[in-house]
């Protein structure tokens, strides 16, 4: 509420400052303590509120939005338990370095010490997944704190250190007068480390046993072209990080292979190089440890060189070692014809590769089916590919919500394993409510296939009951078409490759969301992934 | 694996120690880092593993189990994000003082510092919702640490300070040899503070303007009878805490009214007393703050006396002030006849009150419909009533899983608001997989009714768009019968009071889970609750 002296309530200053900083969307799951923020939000056309029925949907949507929009969304969460529900997807956003402002409502300052039933220590909960955490303690600081949250989100995003800024807003700070919105200055792009670029250039020129390992913002057109120029000029080999936040793929752009998930394959790909130059990525680490297996992916005599996260570094490096410029890479041949017969993971991938529409946004939480899908879409029309950056499952359908809000004119395709789909199925309701153009393909093998694989490797447990062991990876009994119907999303079930092709064509042609349950053999086990499959 | 010298792997020692401590069930949502625990678990008939498809189901089930079994369950969670997903129901368990051992797998000790993708600071995440947190750093400590976790869980439970003990188990600690199981001594019941009991007795004898406020374990038969004896002997009035973990109700037991949720009603009930004696409960605090409203529920001249959490204190007090003993209270009249016509919250409550089966376990997450339901079941056959202790929604259907596992011979009835049902709907899958006798009644008013009420109280926001304000509490478009079918639980929809009665009778008569969507007017707004409705 604007008073005669120009002051307003804390909640109003938060929202006006968000508008000043280009934050135009709020993925919200509010409660009583956030009511003043909600009321002020409804008074402002500058802010689009998107209701989510679970906090993990809100944070995953903010992640997907940030990756595609290139500017932060906000998520609105209710107290410590609400933040808790949102943490898994904040973890992925942090690993994706997505800029995001997480607004967490809290009890009124004067009530907090009395420890009401919903009270908890929000700072502790927020710290592990946040680049920046602050509690606003009086309305007069609401504008300044919001501005600093936006700047912190952008800075962490640019530095590749994670861009989740968590602002804790007590309810009385929001309803009290005396606040003013703050301006939010533009953030300058991060500069390259010239010395590191020089050193890398010398190494690439002097030694042909070099690998250029790229990630982050370098997986967009400029970075991909620069990497290809460097490789051609110096003979360096190229590799990309395993799970990029956003990977642009289009005919004419180099399609750089990504580090595989299985430990042995990853080591093999990194082996045989004297130097590895990292640009927009850090040296990869094994996803998990295993008894008697190495904890390091690199040979002992391999030297690692870090160029930093700034995209400018890779551009500068390309200008140093390949100043003449080199033409575009040859487009890959288009995908083959459509397969037929009973559906398998490989056939599902082939169908998707053949039908992927121009300028699709692909959200990949296919886990054990992912490698097939990446391969099958290599020659597809231009698209962006969003990965499960942090390995915390339940990202797929929420991130698709955010991507569709950010890019209303582009088709969004979620490639979703069945096990991980069950962490945040509520995202489907928001897809229906907002009429988002999202097609979800559930790759349903009725098991935590990864767990079955991992359990098979556990040796020497006397009396281990293989039946019970299988039981813990058996998730049969799910009907995703019914589940989607329960949340207002129409759907269909594909048992053959022909079914999938027909249903995918129809789903992509119609506006609004659709879900296809692609029924795979329940023994299907491909490599690569984390938990669900 | 047991070696020739009697040592075993860390995972084996954890499981054998759990067995020594009477922990017989594990509600599990494991990942790769927990595979040795899972493999060892399958080798032991002493441990029942119950697979959950989301961590909030696992922690909520462990809460429900602990409340009904009177001994701890374990929950098995995967790394920081998995713990994050389980925090909301750990919050409720903490507020219920439920004894529980939360086992959180972590990366191998030698890999942790390299910060693999799924890495995060688990201690920080665990601390706010845990009474006790420890990381086991070598296999030799696994037995001891597990024993101490069980003792800490029991101690926090007995002291009413929360009984969630979180044990962080790196994967190499679990797979390494050199561990031995530890014994777990019995825990002595907490003793009463004799001085506090004497003082309370004197106050109750000297002043008739006393209120005896009971909670925790005193809401079982012994405590309820002791409270009634004290009231009859001294003239004290009686009141119970708002949301008990477990409230026993049966004909012949005094049915003590509970503190109402709305701030004004709660203050009114506590007003007019010179002294309040708290037994098994702490002085209540307003659930939320509101502009210009008081933050304290008591009059300034009211003296508060804390007897502590030990049930023995209330028994001792009764023996002091009412040594002769007093007979059972008169049973309430049985509920009235069955209503007919279009369903309302009040009619749904009447149907449930009339049909509640003997020895039911009622899990109440009905939020805005809860007060009606409590009133309508006052004269019902003997039952236990489990409340949303921490206000963190998403407890209902998971807690019902745990209660049904703990009490396989008793019918479990979940009274579930629709908004809060959407936080942990995955619990239905476990109900189907385990064939649990749980009947879920969704009280579906298609809105966050509490939020609509709260928003209506927010005044003075110029330009606030009432349409958008309503939008954020409108959750229409859900079909819970389809949702249940998607997870293998059969269901039906009740539009009239007669439908509900017919369907409830049939559901209670059949084995296995069933879900009834009770369609209420979408404008239905009763008092009492937190967020969903």
TrEMBL record, chains A, B:
Keywords: Thiamine pyrophosphate. It holds the Pfam family TPP_enzyme_C. Residues 389-517 form the Thiamine pyrophosphate enzyme TPP-binding domain. The keyword DNA damage does not apply. One of its GO terms (molecular function) is acetolactate synthase activity. Residues 8-113 form the Thiamine pyrophosphate enzyme N-terminal TPP-binding domain. InterPro entries: THDP-binding, Thiamin_PyroP_enz_TPP-bd_dom, TPP_enz, TPP_enzyme_TPP-bd. Belongs to the TPP enzyme family. This is Acetolactate synthase-1/2/3 large subunit. It comes from Nonomuraea solani. The lineage of its organism: Bacteria, Bacillati, Actinomycetota, Actinomycetes, Streptosporangiales.
């Amino acid at each position: 509420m604007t008073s005669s002296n120009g002051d307003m309530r804390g909640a109003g200053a938060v929202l006006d400052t968000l508008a000043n900083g280009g934050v135009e969307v709020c993925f919200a799951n509010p409660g009583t303590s956030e009511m003043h923020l909600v009321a002020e939000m409804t008074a402002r056309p500058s802010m689009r509120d998107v209701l989510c029925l679970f906090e993990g949907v809100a944070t995953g949507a903010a992640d997907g939005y940030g990756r595609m929009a290139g500017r932060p969304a906000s998520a609105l969460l209710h107290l410590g338990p609400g933040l808790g529900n949102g943490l898994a997807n904040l973890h992925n956003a942090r690993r994706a370095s997505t800029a995001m402002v997480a607004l967490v409502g809290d009890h009124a300052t004067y009530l907090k010490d009395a420890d009401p039933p919903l009270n908890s220590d929000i700072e502790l909960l927020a710290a592990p997944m946040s680049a920046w955490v602050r509690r606003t303690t009086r309305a007069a600081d609401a504008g300044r704190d919001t501005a600093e949250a936006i700047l912190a989100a952008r800075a962490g995003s640019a530095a590749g250190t994670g861009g989740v800024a968590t602002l804790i807003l007590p309810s009385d700070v929001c309803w009290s007068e005396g606040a003013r919105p703050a301006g939010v200055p533009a953030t300058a792009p991060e500069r390259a480390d010239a010395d590191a670029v020089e050193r890398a250039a010398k190494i690439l020129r002097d030694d042909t046993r070099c690998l250029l390992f790229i990630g982050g913002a370098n997986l967009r057109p400029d970075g991909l072209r620069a990497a290809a120029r460097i490789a051609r000029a110096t003979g360096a080999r190229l590799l990309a990080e395993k799970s990029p936040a956003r990977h642009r793929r289009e005919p004419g752009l180099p399609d750089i292979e990504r580090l595989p998930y299985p430990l042995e394959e990853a080591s093999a790909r990194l082996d045989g190089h004297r130097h590895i130059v990292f640009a927009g990525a850090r040296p990869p680490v094994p996803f998990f440890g295993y008894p008697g297996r190495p904890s390091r992916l690199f040979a002992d005599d391999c030297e690692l060189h870090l160029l930093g996260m700034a995209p400018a570094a890779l551009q500068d490096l390309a200008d140093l070692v390949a100043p003449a410029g080199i033409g575009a890479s040859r487009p890959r041949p288009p995908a083959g014809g459509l397969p037929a017969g009973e559906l398998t993971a490989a056939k599902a991938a082939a169908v998707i590769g053949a039908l992927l529409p121009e300028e699709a946004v692909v959200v990949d939480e296919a886990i054990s089916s992912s490698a097939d899908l990446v391969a099958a879409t290599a020659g597809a029309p231009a698209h962006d590919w969003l990965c499960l950056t942090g390995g915390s499952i339940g990202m797929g359908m929420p991130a698709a919500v955010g991507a569709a809000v950010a890019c209303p004119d582009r088709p969004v395709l979620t490639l979703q394993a069945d096990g991980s789909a069950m962490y945040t199925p509520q995202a489907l309701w928001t897809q229906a409510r907002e009429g988002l153009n999202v097609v979800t393909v559930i790759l349903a093998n009725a098991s935590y296939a990864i767990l079955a694989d991992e359990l098979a490797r556990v040796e020497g447990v006397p009396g281990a009951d293989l039946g019970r062991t299988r039981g813990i990876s058996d998730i049969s009994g799910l009907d995703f078409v019914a589940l989607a119907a329960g949340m207002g999303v129409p759907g269909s079930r594909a048992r053959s490759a022909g079914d999938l092709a027909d249903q995918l064509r129809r789903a992509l042609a119609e506006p609004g969301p659709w879900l296809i349950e692609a029924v795979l053999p329940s023994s299907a086990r491909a490599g690569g992934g984390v938990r669900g499959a």
